[in-house]
Design goal:
Layout lengths: L13 H13 L3 H12 L4 H8 L3 H19 L4
Helix pairs in contact: 2-4, 3-4
């Protein structure tokens, strides 16, 4: 997600930006939402998440990749 973050506007509150991003994350499909939350907010790596949700490591990586793409679109960054 670090590749999709944009600099905050000069007068914006960083907490607002965080809340906006968290709101978008919570709108993701459950499998993506859980993986993003565990990876970025709780600090688990993909292998640990795979064990927690009983899915292959490659599946977790795909969920994270798909979630990043969806968030980029929502944030207006189509690159």
């Amino acid at each position: 997600m670090e590749s999709i973050s944009e600099p905050a506007a000069p007068n914006s509150d960083p907490a607002d930006t965080f809340d906006d991003l968290l709101e978008l994350v919570m709108k993701l499909p459950e499998n993506q939402r859980v993986c993003v939350y565990l990876f970025y907010y709780e600090g688990y790596n993909a292998a640990e998440i795979a064990k927690l949700i009983n899915k292959p490591h490659s599946t977790v990586r795909n969920y994270l990749s798909d979630a990043r793409k969806a968030l980029r679109i929502q944030l207006g960054d189509d690159t």
